[in-house]
Amino acid sequence: MILRALRERDRVPVTVLAELTGCSEMTIRRDLDVLERDGCLRRVRGAAVNMLTGEETPFPLRARQQVEAKRRLGAAVAGMLDDGETVVLDSGTTTLEVARSLADRRLTVLPLSLHGADALRPAERVRLVLPGGDLRAGELTFVGPLTEYALNTMRFDTVVLGCCGLTVRDGVTAHDLVEAQVKKAAVAASARVIAVLDHAKLVRTAFARVCAVAEVDVVVTDRDAPADQVDQLRQAGVEVHCV
Amino acid sequence: MILRALRERDRVPVTVLAELTGCSEMTIRRDLDVLERDGCLRRVRGAAVNMLTGEETPFPLRARQQVEAKRRLGAAVAGMLDDGETVVLDSGTTTLEVARSLADRRLTVLPLSLHGADALRPAERVRLVLPGGDLRAGELTFVGPLTEYALNTMRFDTVVLGCCGLTVRDGVTAHDLVEAQVKKAAVAASARVIAVLDHAKLVRTAFARVCAVAEVDVVVTDRDAPADQVDQLRQAGVEVHCV
DNA sequence: TGATACGAACACAAAACGTGTTCGATGGGC
DNA sequence: GCCCATCGAACACGTTTTGTGTTCGTATCA
Questions:
Q1: In terms of CA atoms, which chain B residue is nearest residue A108?
Q2: What is the residue extent of each domain of chain A?
Q3: A117, B137: Cβ pair inside 8 Å?
Q4: Is the CB of B30 under 7 A from strand D?
Q5: Out of A112-121, A211-220, B61-70, B175-184, which region has the weakest mean confidence (pLDDT)?
Q6: How far apart are CA A114 and CA A124, in angstroms?
Q7: What percent of chain B has pLDDT over 70?
Q8: Residue A31: which nucleotide is closest by CA–C1'?
Q9: Between B10 and A144, whose confidence is greater?
């Protein structure tokens, strides 16, 4: 409720949040503490302030959004992977749900974030290989030359790509340049590219270019995907699944 | 209590454990479930059986042993690291305690196990770089050519080495060949080698050789270390701390 | 086939958690 | 520099979760 209120206005007083939620101000303050620690908002005296200034929404906030839809996407992607495959699992909250759908599968997985590795740790039949590299603080993604070297020395059957934007015109795009570099290497190292993203990202273009639409084999998105975008993608030879 | 009982006898009936602990058999069974899942013992009908057959005790069991002593060792090693240093943090339960003592330090750390990475994740001022590689299931250590490549491309001020055995005659030894290979690379990449181990390991020699005593700069162990071993190490030019 | 061990299901107590209140400390605006 | 609003520590309370013991039907081994 707090995050929802904060999405509408940029600054919401503690008193208003207390009234809105029907609980005491003390409870609000405690919740604001947690949310601030997670990097979901900024606290000022008397109120919570939206911290979404730049491009990228912080991971813990994204992880709290549209959980059910992401779970469906994750299950759909998991269903496209065959047992025994070698898979690069990109970073992001949607691909994280893919990882969670892989618990009892037999695969070799190279996750591009520690979150992915954590999710796959209990999966006994999954062989985990980590790429290494600099660990970006919030996202816990691997970036840098070490990561790219690792991807360059291996070949994979499939890369499950999470992206910030995908259009026929601009291809796959990401917010961050160094992350895009890693994604690029992952695409180059993989025989099949599955991009997974919610419908909102199908009309969006982010800053850093990853690859052209021609390099994408499959797009998995939700049912709210705009029909014209889906048509354009299909005409461009991309297999599109709306789940 | 269960694990202690199992260290004395190799097979302890559920009824005996119930009597020993003063709780019901059902509770014992539930605890045995957990311990078996963690790989600390094996269950047979009517009893728990010690599973320590081979060389290496499983990680969750070791992590439960001598926690206080390890914590002291960890704090001592942490005190030897200067702010701003680049450090390789070896795998193992003792070095894990070193990681926990590094929470508010400013360092660049390359952990050789996921456990180490997890422990350092909340440390905001620690720059984490992971080596990558194959993830060994139980220990969660990085091994293989990828790990060695990463170590070969970097130089470090210090390596905090956890080892299974260390004697003047046989040098530093480990249980596993591929792990030893990684440790070897870590030693080669570091200007200073700090070995941390409890006193029992000072008279032990394991299977796989890591390096000679001459390559070790500092040994941190506990006060129960045998005096003659300590003397020998000092005569060999090693700085020994018993904490 | 019988005695023993097992685990699912329920009941119960203890601990942990979330919440609200009070109250002294702190901070920004006039 | 004062004052009022906000803050967080401390305590109290109800709820939830966890751990434990009991019962009882089922599975297992001699």
A1: B134
A2: 2-52, 62-242
A3: no
A4: yes
A5: B61-70
A6: 17
A7: 98
A8: C18
A9: A144
How large is the average pLDDT for residues B59-68?
84
| CB < 8 Å to B149, chain A | 149
Q: Average pLDDT of B87-109? A: 94
Phi-psi region of A195 (alpha: psi -120 to 50; beta: other; left: phi over 0): beta
DSSP letter string, A148-174: HHHHHT--EEEEEEE-SEEETTTEEEE
Among the partner-chain residues B129, B133, B146, the one whose CB lies closest to the CB of A135 is: B129
B26 touches strand D (CB under 7 A): yes
**Would the Cβ of B43 be found within 7 angstroms of any atom in strand C?**
yes
Residues 106-125 in A contacting B (C-alpha not used; CB under 8 Å): 114, 117, 121, 124
Please indicate whether residue B178 or residue B123 has the higher confidence score (pLDDT): B178
β-strand B133-135 against A126-130: which pairing, if any? antiparallel
Among 3.40.50.1360, 3.40.50.970, 2.60.40.10, 3.90.1150.10, name the CATH number for the domain at B62-242: 3.40.50.1360
For B43, the 3-state DSSP assignment is: strand
C-alpha–C-alpha distance, residues A110 and A156, integer Å: 9
State the alpha helices, DSSP H only, in chain A.
2-8, 14-21, 25-37, 59-63, 67-80, 93-100, 114-120, 145-152, 177-188, 227-235
Residues of A whose CB is below 8 A from B124? 137
- Test mutation, A128, A141, A151, chain B, max B CBs within 10 A: A128
What sign results for the dihedral spanned by CA atoms B6, B8, B13, B15?
negative
What is residue A54's predicted lDDT score, i.e. its pLDDT?
60
B36 touches strand D (CB under 7 A): no
Q: Is the pLDDT of residue A52 over 80?
A: no
Give the integer Cα–Cα distance in Å for A208 and A166: 11
Residue B219 and residue B96 in contact, taking contact as beta carbons nearer than 8 Å: no
Higher pLDDT, A15 or B65: A15
Place of tokens 């499959």: A218
Question: Mean per-residue pLDDT for A70-79?
Answer: 95
CB pair distance less than 8 Å for A132 and B128: no
Alpha-carbon gap, residue B27 to B37, rounded angstroms: 16
d(CA A42, CA A44): 7
Share of residues in chain A with pLDDT > 70 (%): 98
- Distance from C-alpha of B215 to C-alpha of B196, rounded to nearest angstrom: 14
Residue A133 and residue B132: Cβ atoms within 8 Å?
yes
Tell me the CATH number for domain B2-52.
1.10.10.10
pTM over 0.85: yes
Which chain A residues are within 8 Å of B142, Cβ to Cβ? Answer: 130, 132
